[in-house]
Specification:
Elements (H helix, E strand, L loop, with lengths): L7 H15 L2 H19 L8 H25 L2 H15 L8 H15 L7 H12 L5 H12 L2
Helix pairs in contact: 1-2, 2-3, 2-4, 3-4, 5-6, 5-7, 6-7
């Protein structure tokens, strides 16, 4: 008999305890932050237990925040702070599905353009909605948008 896979939230709890035992400050700080965000998400609106998809959405949001903050620090020349944010991002990425490569995104965008008959920048909305439906969190929307713009001549 195989044991049931722990939920994402249970895995985060377990990994937080492990990080505390190992004195892994980056993982500990990051996972505590995620747990706080999960608690806030569960309490928003009507209090409820979060589904796996809602937990993933919170982790994606936290990862995006780290990515954007790291980029801002790099732009300002604060390499140490950028490195800290990227270290936290690496912890979060353990819980996210594998991200698509630029080549994979390119293929999806091309097929969506072919299927929708899109040819001008005015078709961008149709292309983006169909492409984002296909990538379902496995690609950053900015990257998909840039590739779609390039193909539509925008």
């Amino acid at each position: 008999m195989t044991e049931a896979q722990p939920s994402l939230a249970e895995q985060i709890d377990s990994d937080l305890k492990q990080a505390m035992r190992e004195r892994d400050d980056v993982a500990k700080l990051t996972l505590r932050s995620v747990k706080t965000a999960l608690t806030e998400a569960a309490k928003s609106g009507q209090q409820h237990a979060l589904s796996e998809e809602e937990v993933l959405a919170v982790i994606r949001r936290e990862a995006k925040q780290r990515r954007e903050t790291a980029q801002e620090y790099e732009r300002l020349g604060a390499q140490a702070q950028a490195a800290d944010e990227l270290a936290e991002l690496a912890v979060l990425e353990r819980y996210l599905p594998r991200q698509l490569t630029a080549v994979e995104i390119e293929e999806i965008v091309r097929s969506v353009i072919a299927e929708t008959g899109a040819s001008t920048p005015r078709d961008m909305g149709r292309v983006m909605s169909a492409a984002m439906e296909r990538v379902k969190g496995a690609a950053d929307g900015k990257v998909v948008n840039q590739i779609a713009r390039r193909h539509l001549g925008a």
